[in-house]
Amino acid sequence: MENFTNNKRVLQEIYQIVALQENEGDIANYIPELAKVNPERFGVSFLSINNEEFGIGDWQTKFSIQSISKVLSLSLAYKIVGDKIWERVGVEPSGSAFNSLVQLETDNGIPRNPFINGGAMVICDVLISHLKNPINDFLDYVREISYCKDIYFSESVAKSEASAGYRNIALCNFIKSFGNIKNQPNEVLDFYFKMCSIEMSCQELTKTFLFLANSKFRTASGDIVLNLGQAKRINAIMQTCGFYDESGEFSFKVGLPGKSGVGGGIAALYPGKYCIAVWSPKLNKKGNSYRGMKFLELFTSETQLSIF
Amino acid sequence: MENFTNNKRVLQEIYQIVALQENEGDIANYIPELAKVNPERFGVSFLSINNEEFGIGDWQTKFSIQSISKVLSLSLAYKIVGDKIWERVGVEPSGSAFNSLVQLETDNGIPRNPFINGGAMVICDVLISHLKNPINDFLDYVREISYCKDIYFSESVAKSEASAGYRNIALCNFIKSFGNIKNQPNEVLDFYFKMCSIEMSCQELTKTFLFLANSKFRTASGDIVLNLGQAKRINAIMQTCGFYDESGEFSFKVGLPGKSGVGGGIAALYPGKYCIAVWSPKLNKKGNSYRGMKFLELFTSETQLSIF
Amino acid sequence: MENFTNNKRVLQEIYQIVALQENEGDIANYIPELAKVNPERFGVSFLSINNEEFGIGDWQTKFSIQSISKVLSLSLAYKIVGDKIWERVGVEPSGSAFNSLVQLETDNGIPRNPFINGGAMVICDVLISHLKNPINDFLDYVREISYCKDIYFSESVAKSEASAGYRNIALCNFIKSFGNIKNQPNEVLDFYFKMCSIEMSCQELTKTFLFLANSKFRTASGDIVLNLGQAKRINAIMQTCGFYDESGEFSFKVGLPGKSGVGGGIAALYPGKYCIAVWSPKLNKKGNSYRGMKFLELFTSETQLSIF
Amino acid sequence: MENFTNNKRVLQEIYQIVALQENEGDIANYIPELAKVNPERFGVSFLSINNEEFGIGDWQTKFSIQSISKVLSLSLAYKIVGDKIWERVGVEPSGSAFNSLVQLETDNGIPRNPFINGGAMVICDVLISHLKNPINDFLDYVREISYCKDIYFSESVAKSEASAGYRNIALCNFIKSFGNIKNQPNEVLDFYFKMCSIEMSCQELTKTFLFLANSKFRTASGDIVLNLGQAKRINAIMQTCGFYDESGEFSFKVGLPGKSGVGGGIAALYPGKYCIAVWSPKLNKKGNSYRGMKFLELFTSETQLSIF
Lengths: 308, 308, 308, 308
Description:
The structure is a homotetramer.
Chain A: H1 2-20, E1 43-48, E2 53-57, E3 63-64, H2 69-81, H3 100-106, H4 117-130, H5 134-146, E4 152-153, H6 155-164, H7 166-177, H8 185-196, E5 198-200, H9 202-213, H10 228-241, H11 247-253, E6 258-260, E7 265-270, E8 274-279, H12 290-303
Antiparallel strand pairs in A: 1-2, 1-8, 3-5, 4-5, 6-7, 7-8
Helix pairs in contact in A: 1-12, 2-4, 2-10, 4-7, 4-8, 5-9, 6-8, 7-8
């Protein structure tokens, strides 16, 4: 409780500091719909495993969570398929975007991890094979683990991504040519683009990620989502692969498992302690939220609440 | 104290379990001297930040620590040069060994992290530029932080590595061609091969790595080695890059910052809690100690002492 | 005339020799329709620029010319667009199939030459932009330059290729993502698969390629197809890029500009002298007709009719 | 004879045209000694297989032939070892400089062709294994085939290259690590740098390359150098691999087998007809003589003396 009071104070102070500094970077512009967002939006939400919650700024405004959703699809596929999933996707960082297609070639179509686009597509393919109404069943799963009913994807963003997604179409068909996509590429891409277009607020993100931070987490029906070992594994993958080319940098500066999206959101967590989500649309050169990275770096430095 | 008693029991049990299982893999054979080691050697050492120490098997037998020494050279270079060091070497995982030369090409001779061979050579180059008697001064530094006087490198192993090290010679000259090695490649390689030939026991390794686990660590002269932020950063790099192509796997299965060497040693640590070192010469396909990986996986699963 | 008598004799002799030797290699099996062809088919056609013609074996049986058609599409696009075409596709050999996607990445979507799949797709894209009824207009062009009316593509082969062509779909969308495909990838691929499914006999192939060997060639309407400089350029590209990974080997052993297809056909020519076409479905490891390569090597060695 | 008169006239005219145009590009500056050459030097030498000779400008001034020497070392190694040489070096174009190290990796240390640096080093290694006094014996061979006694290498250029040759040192050790260099890398590099530092005039170059153009060529002692098939093969490799990344472009624009060097020289030939050599030190972006390329393009266009 005392800690929470202190954390609240620190969150407020750092929010003020970052809000006053120049807001550098650019909004993702390759997805026309995303380019329409107000670049000055800035929100932070904090939720401890004891359900102490604190938010500031635009913490209750929904935005496109984009790649953050890949943690959720991974968790559902892992829950359904178990450790067999690692036969179709690796757990190693990918080095660099530049190499992704070469690596698929040398790795025979097995993406290096579930958070690079190719890996996320393989996970989507797994879900399509196991879910009756893939995108609806997936949304229901997210609603259940987050205790938030009001979760949808944006049709316009999904369409916008599909219309500009030639590189993703290339990637999906390339993996299919190795046999590591079982369904039709079009179906997989449709699910993938919709999943990436899910919209949540920072508050909803912290509630959604709580099951990875709190080993005692139960859904409303009393079920656990993943067992402790499984949650630990997903956290480990977020730690090493959650921030594209900047995963090492994030690990180095922030020291928390987390995942970013090109919508400007970041969700991170301290196992056994708390979840935190930040949203600010301008991205640094590596494609991660400029203010989000800055905020989290200052926060873990100040509170010493890093895992290292 | 109670914890320590429990940890001791777990260490003993797991040692017995792993020792009874088949000892798979192969000794590193590309360095003739290393191929002479008895493959059945197996030792474990545990040291808490409260100096509770426990060892089992060949925990006091010296072996070639090889790449584990890269953490030590990095720590000294970081201490001397500070954050400027990141201008010459990155902090991102490298993806795969396969790509190392291509990545140097696209990254203009900046190795992706200080633990891949090229990165360690740049660190050696930094040390040569700042130390009067590079290898001796470096050994003195290791003796000081470990409180162990009896630390040397093996001339025969260093020579053995140099004689077979065409690929490392290639790598060093390649980086030199980009201007990111300042001294003569021959000097850098000489230091590099000697540094990798340092010999320690598991016991000595845990004592040497304690400064990264214990924020209150002081040398005999009362000095701190690195400040808290610096130690945190090195731990983060070990977490993401410490096990070659298997860093994600290690992060995923063991969940501790650590570093392996082809001599069969692994040093790992839990920040704020303990150091642990394991030695068993047979290596898995990724070049990490087969029994070492197994032991640590069982240990963190059993004790829940992982950072995730 | 005397030469022709001699060439006829040599062609007959070499045909007998090659027909008696073991027929090694495998039929292309990734396109289901192609796998149905009788592997023992073997035909040769020779046509001098003085219209002296000689054929042997299955020289009048139609087969799927596959990539040989890329020379024809290039010639039409070059005729229409002129030297501007080299802004969108290079003239350098590609090194190896392995690198094709990496090279597209480093070359910003400009394929290295018009005969690798990506380059041929860019040429198809150019044709679609300039032809009213792309595939029909293209067939009319081929009929005109060959003086052969009976030229069609196989719907079943085109469908068979499309159904298994995930890698080509990937490639086309990848180039589109760089902006070097102007039309929709689906349209480009449709044209590409149909063009590759054109069927000709060896006899028709030599008649079709005559315009590249004979500087005085005219169509029925009295038009030239390409000017001398343009024909020389296409011949040069065939010389350096016509045989995938085996272009150097072909240049080295046969020494003629030529182009192969996975249907087992090869068309080659000696500028100012003759055209020659060979068909035998079994392919060597590099994807070129085993007997076709052998036949041409023996033929140019025996007649000294190589350009080197 | 009549032809020769015409060729002479064309050579003179084109020389005037090119000499009057702007002299673009840069002198090779990575080798300090080469940077000292007067950039306005410009010479051309022509020699028919009937020994009709014509020169213009600085055609009798010696310059550093650099990579042109790789054709000579290849011819000697091929003469000594025969077709076995192709087990250690390929005959395929390399695609691009960029990929050279990756290709060595995927090709297990077999360079793609004898004209890329790695391939030329393997050829040097072969020569060292077979010659008593490698560099002297090699110079004697060149003197014999050229009927020119006054052929030496420049010690200062060789030293200059060695001192800046980190990338070449890297390359040689990398190939050694695959076992495809048999002698010590230092010895191979010493021979390689000296061989590249041979100095010749345009006149001497045409005399030296005559044995590849004239199938009746004999040395003073009456010996043939290579048999017809061997000469044809070397010509074919020059055609596909002689101009680095610009081999396709050269084939396309000039249409002759040839080889360039960063000293600004180009030697080319028309089998059965003539040799031609051009020298102008300024290089285009691909590292080939700017004026040399221009001159040869105009010459073969004007005379129609291209092989295509």
